[in-house]
Write a structure and sequence with these properties.
By secondary structure, chain A is mostly helical. Chain A has helices at about 1-5, 10-30, 45-55, 60-65, 70-85, 90-100, 110-130, 135-140, 140-160, 165-185, 190-210. Chain A contains 11 helices and no strands. In chain A, helix 2 (about 10-30) packs parallel to helix 10. The N and C termini of chain A lie far apart (about 55 Å). Chain B is mostly helical and about 375 residues long. Among the domains of chain B are: about 90-120 and about 140-220 and about 230-300, Transmembrane di-heme cytochromes, Chain C (Fumarate Reductase Cytochrome B subunit, Up-down Bundle); about 125-135 and about 315-364, no CATH class. Chain B is elongated, with a radius of gyration of 40 Å. The chains are: A mainly alpha (about 210), B mainly alpha (about 375). At the A-B interface, helix 7, helix 8 and helix 9 of A face helix 4 and helix 5 of B.
């Protein structure tokens, strides 16, 4: 009974909230517009936006020096999670069955394990840093902690269900993933989408001014 | 005429009777001899008749080991039908490891409880001072809590796997336990390699401060001050902490190595290696759990001020003087002690004064 609910109506509801919520958030950002810059452009806004979008993946030297651990943990977590989400065989099967209707090649089992290790280590380190460093603790609010805990629980329940032998464990993983989907559009987890606009806006502004930033 | 016929008839009858007797005698004679021989054979040693099936099963059982057969199945130990050592390992696990290991864990827990009731929380004798000493950096606290969280997860899941059958099945039933055991096994296997990362980070960061030095032995001989009322001076880490560090590194390495042997059967290790690895893994982990129970006891309810260094990074000056006298003296002499107020502000999630000032200026 509960299983059917998690597998059916709750999944549809969570997906709907996620899709509408994300579109609404992105739409509201795009529709807010930008201030009219009357100054004569000294460079291309488009190329500035494009450059900033990708150049920001490589951190500044000062950041590399001072925050080596956050940098490594950040990349480990995000890349690991991305690989797990889109290239783990059970997830591909799920996407093909429920959303896309087609599948794509999955990563081998050893790569799955490495991705999971990286994602877990990265997330635990980043969360500990958030809790233990006075500055990040000051900057963090409840949303940051709820987001971190939810992502961790989804990952953990997924790894506990790895044997794929028990329906209860799969449903637990799915339930937590659904809670995350519902929470996602209302939280800072939206940075998964908004980073493009954020970098693009900064890059375009600077590009128009002819600043290589 | 009639008389003659009667005589012939009687003679024929006598002959027939005699023939019958002779026949019976001759017939019964060999039976008697065979019967006698059978009686005699019970007292004689038996004749060994080789049973080919017995030989077959002796080879299958392979009590002596080393008699490996040939199989079409490719793989380690695929030529071994029955591993006799497996039974020995199973008996050790079921009859010694689980009951004795469980008793030790419960015993240590009870002992710590009794110790707490007798000794209570060890206070800072001089009380909390108004000065703090910087003890652990953010990175050091991070790797400490990283190894702590991974260890606790592995310990809980490992104990469920080891003691689940006798302890949890009677409480939750077989079906629920099978789900829990599967989850624990997958979680334990996946998180296990992270313990390797954690131990390496701990080793690299803390090894220099954990090398034994002068004064450590006297700390040990005086029971670390926890028995009795006198505090024993020590360095940044005392003998107990240093020993725990080396235990974590050495026993932790054993646990990690044996765990990798168990999780990744890719290096040609057979069943006997796996059994050996399991025993080493379980014994090492039980030892570490017992030690960490003591560590958690001191850090939580056993001693005032002991946890502070690992949460805020700062420790109380009086606590440092009582437990790490040599180090505290050095830090104070260098003038690196800070006010309690500055540290308390951090603990209350308030920005330090310099940041606050900056924010106010920015607001104007």
């Amino acid at each position: 009974m509960i299983g059917e609910f998690i597998d059916g109506p709750l999944w549809n509801f969570a997906l709907t909230v996620f899709v509408i919520g994300v579109i609404w958030r992105i739409g509201s950002i795009l529709l807010s517009g930008v201030r009219n810059d009357l100054a004569e452009p000294k460079g291309s806004a488009g190329s500035g936006a494009f450059r900033a979008l990708f150049s920001r993946f490589v951190p500044e030297r000062t950041v590399t020096k001072r925050g080596k651990l956050q940098l490594i943990a950040g990349y480990a977590f995000h890349l690991g999670l991305f690989a797990l989400l889109f290239f783990a065989q059970p997830h591909i099967d799920f996407f093909a069955q429920r959303i896309t209707g087609f599948s794509w090649p999955a990563m081998p089992y050893w790569a799955f394990i490495v991705s999971a290790e990286l994602a877990f280590a990265g997330l635990i380190f980043l969360w500990l840093y958030r809790l233990l460093n006075p500055v990040t603790r000051l900057l963090s609010d409840l949303d940051d902690h709820v987001g971190s805990i939810l992502v961790f629980l989804v990952m953990l329940s997924g790894c506990l269900a790895l044997a794929q032998s028990f329906e209860v464990l799969r449903l637990l993983h799915l339930l937590l993933a659904e809670l995350l989907l519902i929470y996602f559009p209302f939280s800072k987890l939206m940075h998964a989408f908004t980073f493009v606009m954020s970098r693009g806006y900064t890059g375009a502004t600077m590009g128009r001014k002819g600043v290589n930033a | 005429m009639i008389y003659k016929r009667e005589r012939i008839s009687r003679r024929m009858g006598r002959i027939s009777f005699t023939g019958l007797l002779v026949f019976l005698l001759l017939y019964s004679l060999p039976l008697e001899i065979v019967a006698e021989e059978t009686k005699g054979s019970r007292e004689m040693p038996s004749v060994m008749v080789l049973n080919p099936a017995a030989e077959l099963w002796r080879d299958v059982r392979q009590r002596e080991g080393g008699n490996i057969g040939i199989s079409q199945v490719r793989g380690v130990d695929s030529g071994v039908l029955i591993n006799a050592n497996g039974d020995r390992w199973r008996k050790f696990r079921m009859e010694q490891l689980i009951p004795i290991g469980g008793s030790i864990l419960v015993g240590v827990f009870v002992l710590l409880g009794i110790f707490y009731m007798v000794r209570g929380k060890v206070p800072i004798e001089g009380g909390q001072s108004d000065r703090k000493l910087f003890r652990y950096s953010t990175y050091e606290r991070m790797i400490h809590w990283f190894v702590a969280s991974i260890f606790l997860f592995l310990a809980i899941t490992g104990l469920i796997l080891l003691f689940g059958r006798p302890v949890l099945i009677p409480l939750m039933g077989k079906e629920a336990f099978s789900v829990l055991a599967s989850a624990c096994k997958e979680g334990h296997n996946l998180m296990g390699p992270l313990f390797l990362v954690a131990v390496v980070l701990i080793f690299v960061r803390f090894v220099r401060r954990n090398i034994y030095q002068k004064g450590d032995l006297s700390w040990l001989l005086r029971g670390g001050g926890i028995i009795g009322n006198k505090h024993v001076p020590s360095n940044f880490f005392n003998m107990g902490e240093k020993s725990m560090f080396w235990l974590l590194i050495l026993v932790g390495s054993l646990i990690i190595a044996s765990g990798l042997v168990l999780v990744f059967p890719l290096f040609g290790q057979g069943r006997e290696w796996m059994e050996l690895a399991h025993v080493a893994h379980a014994l090492g982990a039980l030892l570490m759990i017992v030690v960490i129970m003591g560590h958690i006891y001191i850090g939580s309810v056993g001693m005032e001020g002991a946890l502070e260094g690992m949460t805020t990074g700062y420790c109380d000056l009086n606590w440092a003087k009582e437990h790490h006298d040599h180090w505290a003296t050095e830090v104070v002499e260098r003038g690196e002690d800070v006010s309690n107020e500055a540290v308390e502000r951090l603990r209350r999630n308030e920005p330090p004064s310099s940041v606050q000032l900056h924010l106010q200026e920015h607001g104007k």
